[in-house]
Prior knowledge:
The protein is an alpha/beta fold. The two termini are 14 Å apart. The protein has helices spanning 6-22, 26-38, 42-61, 89-103, 148-151, 164-179, 197-207, 219-233, and strands at residues 2-5, 71-79, 82-85, 128-134, 139-146, 155-159, 187-195, 248-258, 263-270, 277-280. The longest helix is centred in the first third of the chain and has 20 residues, at 42-61. The chain has 2 domains: 2-20 and 65-146, no CATH class; 149-274, CATH 3.30.1330.
Amino acid sequence: MRELDVSQVTQAVEEMCVAACYDLPDDVLKAMEKARDVEESEVGRELLDICVENAKVAARERVPICQDTGVTVVFLELGQDLHLVGGDLYEAVAEGVRRGYTTGYLRKSVVADPLFTRKNTGDNTPPIIYTDIVPGERLKIMVVPKGTGSENMSALKMLTPAAGPQGVKKFVVEVVDKAGSNPCPPVIVGVGVGGMMDRAAVMAKKALLRKVGEPHPEPEVAKLERETLKEINDLGIGPQGLGGRVTALAVHIETAPTHIGALPVAVNLQCHAARHAERVL
């Protein structure tokens, strides 16, 4: 059994928080550059150019891509043969967030009480953490700074099984249509289908971590992704909501077993600044 001191987790998370907010992943950048070639609107092409240039300036000048550096969502895949030593894993992650948002001069957006005082915690903690236990002796960390411009436009609906794939597609397109310019398109659309309402929502968020445009391994699901993307881009919302062909860069659908009487569908929208960082310890 391998040992890992949680101080390494803290250091990794600190570095990843900064990197995620400064450096747009290559697959996202390439997807926007490709979108520019198919965008028919002159204004849309100009806006896509600005988005790409903004990402390049952020990386070069080491400044945040967007002022909303979000709530820090952290996905952990913990190997069952890994022994963590030196402290509490979740506190180590939180300390990494605390340090990263301070050393990186990132906006701290978390309030402790959602209803009454809404007092800022001052260090962007606590993070939201999801953990899966997997085979092996490694720890995979995925840091996702999630802002509210796109998050506030997300939605969940408990469909009936009779709605089927067409009902899922209809709901996803309606969510994007209603969102309009609010989530700063072009967006990436994460969709979770199945499980129960909580599982569907987590799947929708994790779907955003797939490389942009990488199809689902199941052919029928991949086909539904393509069809849904086409209908979304036929809406004409376009880059930043000013009209055009490219409203979404990709639709990523994840599925899970569910109850015979249920068809939960969650849609998690991600703006063009699709920030995330991954590391394996």
